[in-house]
Amino acid sequence: MSNPFMRAVPSTRIHPQRMVAGESLTxxxxxxxxxxxxxxxxxxxGEFLYRVGASFHALYxxxxxxxxxxLLTEDGREQITGFHMAGEVLGLEGIGAETYAGDAVxxxxxxxxxxxxxELDALACRDPALQRELxxxxxxxxxxxxxxxxxxxxxxxxERLAAFLINLSQRMAARGFSAHRFMLRMTREEIGSLxxxxxxxxxxxxxxxxxxxxxxxxxxxxxxxxxxxxxxVIGRTDLRREREAA
Amino acid sequence: MSNPFMRAVPSTRIHPQRMVAGESLTxxxxxxxxxxxxxxxxxxxGEFLYRVGASFHALYxxxxxxxxxxLLTEDGREQITGFHMAGEVLGLEGIGAETYAGDAVxxxxxxxxxxxxxELDALACRDPALQRELxxxxxxxxxxxxxxxxxxxxxxxxERLAAFLINLSQRMAARGFSAHRFMLRMTREEIGSLxxxxxxxxxxxxxxxxxxxxxxxxxxxxxxxxxxxxxxVIGRTDLRREREAA
DNA sequence: CGGCAGATTGACCCTCATCAATCAAGGTGG
DNA sequence: CCACCTTGATTGATGAGGGTCAATCTGCCG
Lengths: 246, 246
Fold this sequence. Notes:
Two copies of one chain form a homodimer.
Chain A: H1 28-33, E1 39-43, E2 48-50, E3 58-64, E4 67-72, E5 78-84, E6 89-90, E7 103-106, E8 110-116, H2 117-126, H3 128-154, H4 157-174, E9 181-183, H5 188-195, H6 199-211, E10 215-218, E11 221-224, H7 227-233, H8 238-245
Helix pairs in contact in A: 2-3, 4-7, 5-6
Chain A binds a DNA duplex (30 and 30 nucleotides) through residues 156-157, 187-189, 197-204, 206-207, 219-220, 238-239, 242.
């Protein structure tokens, strides 16, 4: 699983020399904006970008801030299906459907670009490159979700947390920020919701990782101390660990 | 969660009067074949339709038989991401990518139609309706996978099994077969792999459902005795059950 | 008939959810 | 500025749910 939580971005489209902290990189969003304009819109923490069932009319490119995608069951349970940061595009799952399939909520104040889908669609009919790009983004979405399914279906709690941290680290690095020290934008409960765990489990395992010298945790600030060891967590079974110790 | 495992098919595209056992219905596959031709190909149980990493060149419409989609982690774990039956289309996740994202394996002897994607793609550039149809199918795939994520992330073993059986029943009904009696095409282990459970748990819970009078199980033959009660399993917590009993 | 894959069932125990208490950090109003 | 409240995080105790190991059983095919 290369990227359990992040839309895969072909490395050929990244410009390493431009990877300075905070500078925006070539991304799905840039690709779209090169084709159509969009309307900027400020959004505040807790606000909904769109809600499940609302009629699909636009994609949203994230300029600043971060978001969560949320799904609901009819019996009231909710699950987070992803966290999203600047440069990513939200609302893709509405393409081909009449309505948005879930909620998108801002985790902090931010800014998005609203890209009307009608325009995009009209353009895509005449521009095969854009059409291909849209397919590529949808396929990326499918890939990302499959990776998460794999995590939810076959990993243990420790492995899930390790995979989550590694992924966040990679995404930060890809955006030009430090891969070893970053702030979580979401609560423990939200992390648990994504990973299929309870918030107490998330908290306990973060503490355990700290005791083991893998990471440093101070509230929402994460420092990755031993990346290799963190990667090693994925794949290890506790049974094995105990038997080796015995 | 309307359809945890099945690609959603808008009801307007179903022809109720045609729902006779075994007759093929209007499906994604028919829609594609109305646009482009395809090459029929017989396939035997256990054969691979395509493998992860193989270069993406075609979609496959299932004419007969059933298939599983499988994903692998680099550390060797595998997980099934879906079972597919006649009328459904495989390989969608390759659209927009260069390679197939997983394996597709036949669960029994069957027949597929190979639809070269190059042709489809060329047509889609000139035919907005076809383009829209492809987007719709991709969105359906995303929707199906999100539902499975929800199941994996928030349901208990009993609920997962109940959801699985209900979904199979609906799909059988949609294809004109009995919704109350059908054969499983996959092993307990494969069911477990889809649902994030071990084969013993699958077996135990099927037995429990039988004792409770919800279903009848004889090897791979499933009879659904109390559909309403089976639906009721989803949402109930065992704690609640025990406290009510006490 | 024997062999084998798949299914069932039991015994045991590990992982994680649950319940609950405490703590830290911010924000608000006096 | 401090008292107060709220939200989020940590940590402990306990037990249920489901994984693991293992024995047995069934049906099927050569």
